[in-house]
Amino acid sequence: MALFDLALVALLLMLALRVVVEPDERSAIITFLAFGLLLGLAWVRLAAPDVALTEIAIGGGVTGILLLRAEAALRGRGKQAEPATRTGKLAVAAGSAAISAGLGFAVLTFSTPAPTLAPAAAQALPATGLGNPVTAVLLAFRALDTLLEKVVVLLALIGVWSLAPDALWGGAPDLKPAAVPGPLAYLGRVLPPFGVVIGVYMFWVGADAPGGTFQAGTVLAAMWLLVMMAGLHPPPDTTRWLLRLVLAGGPILFLAIAFLGFAFADGFLAYPKALAKPLILAIEAALTLSVAAALAMLVAGPARKAPAR
Amino acid sequence: MTPLVHATTPGGFLLVLATILPVCAVLAILASGPRSAARIALATFAAGLAVAIAIATELISSGKALSYVVGAWQPPLGIALRADGLSGAMLVMTALVVVAVGLFAHIQHGLQTDAGGGRAQTTFWVMLLALWSALNAVFVGEDLFNLYVALELLTFAAVPLVCLDGRAETVTAALRYLLFALIGSLLYLLGAGLIYGQYGTLDLLALAQLARQDPALAVALALMIVGLLAKAALFPLHLWLPPAHAGAPAPASAVLSALVIKAPVFLILRLVLDVAPPQAAAIAGQMLAVLGAASILFCSVMALRQARLKLMIAYSTVAQIGYLFIVFPLAAGSADLPPWGTIAWTGGALQLVSHALAKAAMFLAAGVIAEAFGHDRIADLGGFGRVLPISAAAFGLAGLSLMGIPPSGGFVAKCLLLTAAVIQGNPWLAATILAGGVLAGAYVFRVIDKALAVPTVPIVARRAVPRRLECAALALAIAAVLIGFVPLRPFGFLQIGRDGLNLAWAP
């Protein structure tokens, strides 16, 4: 396996270098996506399947659509003057090299065995009724971080929406290309049923095995994006109450259960022991939908059509 | 010696409310639609202000820090929140500025013809509330990753505020700000990862007891501090700030300049004071002081050269932030006197609070001026004091704090810092403080001089501005003046909850 790891590292370094030096934007983006997929493999080798799933879904999937769409939008506008000067590039290179050297040096001086909270997390796991310690960290031990992170995603979405012209505020984004290519229309019809099943499965097993809200939400978001991009169903107006309810629903349920902890458990964000698992699953279900809607709408971008009155 | 651990104290739940209430309002606005945004925001102002005052009262009456262990999961597995005297002062300052700016924005929105629920207004309310949560989370956070999330919340609330008006140049400024802020977050996160790898905990209280001189910690702290400096816009990483803060609408500029950049400064203070071992802290303190002094001198001169009022105020922000960094060597403390017992500690905290109040007042006054005359070119504002006497007064009173002239919070702060520099025999820092004051005097008087001038052609307002719009700026400026009545000695409130945390400083 050591040979495989070495090959993986070499390939990762090569792809990273290629992303930086490639002059053509589209090739650079596609190389970057390949880099994301291989990085997912590296996380598998580091025995972190949850991180691997997220890396592949976000780094290889959603980011890919976002970057390729941005590149396509800029392509028509003519080549911009190269923004970075030679000295600027050298400065960035020197800074990155210094940071990498510092990181490498620091990691090599770590005390062995490295201190870890894994035993503590495993020991506390029964109190949550869950089987996957990663889910327990995200939704019990450090639930406050997860709650605030979800609000960050929503803020990013509102920030993107605020970039629309005033007249289009509350309207719908537009994802459909002028002419939908045949394969895209076909995929848009065939893939979503499978994708939805996979997404729901990822959410469900997340309680006890690798998987969970963010990975499941990303898969669902990708399916919704596919449907919108193939022109099978237009994106909704951003003022639609159903969309807003799905977006806010996850964090609102999370907060409601968190506050009930004051009355029925050991305080804010504590769960009563008997009900811990069902409550966590309910929160995860609502969060999965929120994450899916937020990611899809983030990629869809600001409104391009005036709202229907 | 038993290690110190977090334990929930009576009143600790107030810290949860301070962090979570504004976020609840954000979700309520998202769920119920743009039209109710202003009403929800106004209700949250009352509740949030009450929570901040309750925390301060609890701190004074108990004389001890407030703590809350979230979900009863004890750190390092779980997360704790903690507010000592300094955090309490930050919470109250944030509440005051947010409420004053919110009221200003509400009155300003009322002047516009459309019914509300529009793009810029709704976005402003959502981002202002989210920003409040983020700031409170930074001030009470005790966990490096929780603090990272708070910084992310802060960034994503602050950046959209910069380009609310949608002009191309403000979008460019916002993108540049986003880039700096995200690189800062990335460096901070790398550092936090290294610290977890070395010590197996992210809890600041535990780290204060565990941290020792080792290379991994030094690299981690260097990465985190540089990342935070990019967010705090200290010279030479300040390039993003002037266009971003000057291009935003006045109420947004006020919170960005007064509050948002204080969060990374506060975190640098905590890292240097609570986590860094003494020798590392001394080296970091010296370097930060050099950058701080450069910031004061360079950006004061830049402020003096600006033709536009808002750009001048924005450069003044970078200069005033510099004072917060020269505190590090001055408040270094000694074996028998901890850092928070020094006069420089009190001086630094007062500078932070009085700058927040004064700078918010200045940006709001500049907003009134822009509203009335339709521009903010200093050269064409001759005699504006006759048209807008309250705003001119607010600008002048806020200017006292920036210059360090009594009576003002800025005077007490700079006087304490100057005294500390002289006592420690640090003539360079003393000279910098004095020079910064003179330069601030020059740029403030440039505007005051215009306000009192008698132009050949009397200046006329493009539109009438209601008096109540001007009052928000005046109230903040008066608050900055009132801080000047704090006695000139180490202030007891700022030391609450610090003892017992001085392990990193024990001889």
Automatic annotation (TrEMBL), chain A:
The chain crosses the membrane at residues 6-21, 28-46, 52-70, 90-112, 124-144, 151-172, 184-205, 212-232, 252-272, 279-300. It is found in: Cell membrane. InterPro entries: CPA3_antiporter_subunitB, MnhB, MrpA_C/MbhD. Its main location: membrane. Residues 186-300 form the Na+/H+ antiporter MnhB subunit-related protein domain. Residues 10-70 form the MrpA C-terminal/MbhD domain. It comes from the Bacteria. Coiled coil: none annotated. Keywords: Cell membrane, Membrane, Transmembrane, Transmembrane helix. It is a multi-pass membrane protein. PANTHER family: NA(+)/H(+) ANTIPORTER SUBUNIT B, NA(+)_H(+) ANTIPORTER SUBUNIT B. Belongs to the CPA3 antiporters (TC 2.A.63) subunit B family. This is Multisubunit Na+/H+ antiporter, MnhB subunit.
UniProtKB/TrEMBL annotation, chain B:
It is found in: Endomembrane system; Membrane. It comes from the Bacteria. It is a multi-pass membrane protein. Residues 142-437 form the NADH:quinone oxidoreductase/Mrp antiporter transmembrane domain. Keywords: Membrane, Transmembrane, Transmembrane helix. The chain crosses the membrane at residues 12-33, 40-60, 80-104, 124-141, 147-165, 177-196, 216-241, 253-273, 279-304, 311-332, 352-374, 386-408, 428-448, 469-488. It holds the Pfam family Proton_antipo_M. This is Formate hydrogenlyase subunit 3/Multisubunit Na+/H+ antiporter, MnhD subunit. It comes from Bosea robiniae.
